[in-house]
Task: structure prediction
Amino acid sequence: MHSKVVIIGSGPAGLTAALYAARANLEPLVIRGLQPGGLIATTSEVENYPGFVEGIGGVELADSMEKQAARFGAQFKDTLVTAIDASVRPFVITTDGGEQVTADTIIVSTGASPRKLGVLGEEQLANRGVSYCATCDGFFFRGKKVVVVGGGNSALDESLFLTRFVDELIIVHRRDSLRADPVLQERAFSNEKIRFVWDSAVEAIMGNEQVEAVQIKHLKDGSTSELAVDGVFPYIGHIPNTKLFVGLLTLDDAGYIVTDTRQRTNIPGIFAAGDVVDHVYRQAITAAGEGCKAAMEATWYLAEQEHAAKKAQHAAG
Ligand code: NAP
Result:
C-alpha cells in the first residue's frame, strides 16, 4: 500500500493533519496507534476547546474530528508502527502485523503517555484499582474511596470528574500549592468529597487482587502513614511517545521530537505535531494547530518534489 501522507497517531494533532491533508486531495492514511483519539479521548470534559460553549466530552470531540477527516477521504488503520526506514524514498513503514506501507511524507503525532509513579505495587495492580483514565474507569469506583496523585490541571479535572462516582477522594501532592488553573482549584477546594494531603508522595500501593491501601510519605518530616483506599489515579504529567524515533529523528533531552517553527523534523518529508513535540502548551487546540501546519507543510513539500521531478524530466528529455 502507498500513501502520499501517512499520519502516525490519531489525537487532535493527527486528526487535524488528516483533515487538512484530505482536503488537499492527498488521501492521507492515519495509523491510529495504541490510543485511538489520543489523550483527549481519555479526558472527561473539554471546556477550553473553542466553539463549544458548554464544553464537550473528550471521546465525542475525537470522534467528531475523525468523522470530519473521513468525510474528505482520510483512511484509517488500527495498527501500530514498529519500524520506519527513512533511508529510502518513498519511506517504508512497517506495522505490527508485518505489513509495509510506503509514504512520500510522514506526519508524526504519536503524542505522550501518562507518567507512572514508579512505586511498588503500581504495575501489579494496574487495572485492579490503579488507573490512568478516570473517564474510562471512574464508573467502577461508585461509592468508593480513591487517591489522585498530582497538582496539575489533569489531576484536578479528573478528580472533579471522579467525584460523580466516589464517596471520598484524596489528592496527594508533593508540594503545598497547586499548579492547576485557579478555576479548577476553586472547584476542588469547594467540593466536599475532596481533601488534600500536602507535601506528600505515594510510596507504595498495596493489595492482593485489588488496591487496598497506599503508603504515603510526608516529604518534609519523613513520616509515613497508610491510607485504606480502593483506587489510585496518578496524574503526574506525561512522557513523549518517541521510542520508535530514537536514532532517526532529533530528540531533545526530555525525548520530545525537535522541529522548526514549520513542524519540520531533521528529515525532509517527515513532520511532527502535537504532544510529541510540545512540552510547553500541551493543549488540544495547540496540537490541532500544529497538525494543521504539518499537513500544509507536507502539501507544499509534495508540490515542490513534483515540480522538481518535472523540471528534471524536462531537462533530460
Ligand atoms: P502537569 O501540568 O505537568 O502537572 C503534573 C503534576 O504532577 C504537577 O503538579 C507535578 O508537581 C506533579 N508531579 C510530576 N512528577 C511527579 C512525581 N514524580 N511524583 C509526584 N508528583 C509529580 O501535567 P498535567 O496535569 O497532566 O497537564 C499537562 C498539560 O495538559 C498542561 O499543560 C495542562 O495545562 C494541560 N491540561 C489542561 C486541562 C484544562 O485546561 N482543563 C486539563 C488537563 C490538562 P509540581 O507541581 O510540584 O511540579
Notes: The chain has a mean pLDDT of 95. The chain has two domains: 2-114+238-316, 134-234. The domain at 134-234 is CATH 3.50.50.60 (FAD/NAD(P)-binding domain).
